Amino acid sequence: MHDEARYDHVVLISIDTMRSDALSCSPRPLWPHKYRDVHPVRTTVLDELAGSGAYFPNVISAAPYTAAAHGAIFSGQYPLHNGLHEFYNGSLRAPSVFTYGRRAGRATVLKTDFPIILGPELGFTREVDTYLVEDDEGFIDAVLANDSTVACAHFGAVHSPYGFHNLKFGGDAYREKVAELTADLPKSLPFTDLLVESYRDPEDTRLLVHYKRAIAYLHSQGQYDRLLQLYLDGVQHFLETRFAPFVNRLRERVAAAGKRMLLVIFADHGEEFDERTNGHFNSMAEAVLRVPLIVVGDDVAPAVHQHRIRTVDIAPTVLELAGIPSPATGVFDGDSLAAVARGEDTLRCDAPAIAEAYTSELIEFVTYQQRQLAGQTPGPLRHYLIGHTAYLDDRRVVRLTRQYSEWFQKINPTDQTWVERFDEEGVPVPDPDADGTDLLAMLDDYRTALREPEQVSFTDEIRGQLRALGYSV
């Protein structure tokens, strides 16, 4: 029997776009099997945290983009079940870790680097008492201002522009990196990705667009090793300049206050570069879907658990470890791994898993977002299923229905299905002789839950919340 409310503060930390094997302590990294001219980087702070807690290096995300991935993590439900499955449409309708935290009398705090995505438009601020944007110190203050909390700090700096996020955090190093990447670019390039996840001033917007143009150009030239190295270097820069100081301050202040903290670190998706994938944009690549999970707490036993789990397992695991009441059955698609984290049980096999990706025409989404940021009613945004994958035992099936052309100028219908087997190193290898009937049935059964998505409305209430945060909308 474990005491209730064992931790005063339950702090979740989301590192957006952190592929599992970006950590140098990853026991079975994928990238050395694929990239020849890439070297590992220092991830000291995460390596130390992984060594002091329950480390799960093989966690399958429910979606390769921020909104649907976080909705699944917070709710413990797959996207088609929680109301938020498309790239942008919909709203998180299911109870979340914040819902259960509030019911238990805890204050709830959410800090994000991506307010356009993890904000009120898509339902992420429901049940959140304190909502902060790009305010690391304010997050720590908000946690310590309460006797008990369920809180999440989301960091977007591993996402492109890799390591910097914006001028506030990147400073002159960011300006110098953009100048370096764009020095030799052709003067005229095709349309590129103009989407933003946060509110930026003109210089910040210009730098981001130039950075994205450089990445798109390098990808068009097949410079995949250089792109992965750029990404990994960004991981190290973020961890050393922003993340490690944040975690150290958080832990020191919680300890000084005589409080106990359950620290849960995870990612929503990873990043990959090859002929089919440029980053993570609606990709079914294994390196995009495989993310890390680290759980650190007083009753958590240090260990590495290499069997496959799912991001939908995170919510029920965290709530049980923290002693926060939640429904025992019928709500979560994931399973609680609290006993595993405490060292009372072991993972005996790989869990079955599903991931799915929806997208829209990039030009349509850019136009939609520009109307939205101008305070106009953005109207409908068409989405398409681009692909999905199912995992069972040592196999997975991938089925693609649409694929972007180079430079994301067009999304074209396609019909590609293949089965992969994971070798002893955890690397997926195509197996043309494998029977994927049962895996495809998993996908078909899951899609019976498909519902018509809600249109995102940019209401006066949302505008008011954004103005209160200092944005002009």
Give a structural overview.
It is a single chain. This protein has helices at residues 44-52, 66-75, 79-82, 97-103, 136-144, 167-182, 202-220, 224-256, 286-289, 314-322, 338-341, 362-373, 437-446, 460-468; strands at 9-15, 54-60, 107-112, 130-133, 149-155, 261-266, 272-273, 278-279, 290-296, 303-304, 309-310, 353-359, 384-392, 395-404, 411-422, 428-430. It is α/β, with parallel strands linked by helices and 473 residues long. The protein folds into two domains: 9-159 and 225-341, Alkaline Phosphatase, subunit A, CATH 3.40.720.10; 353-449, no CATH class. The strands form three sheets. Strands 1, 2, 3, 4, 5, 6, 9, 10 and 11 form a nine-stranded mixed beta sheet that branches. A hairpin with a 2-residue loop joins strand 13 and strand 14. Helix 5 packs parallel to helix 8 (224-256) and helix 6 packs across helix 7 (202-220). It is globular. Belongs to the sulfatase family. This is Sulfatase N-terminal domain-containing protein.
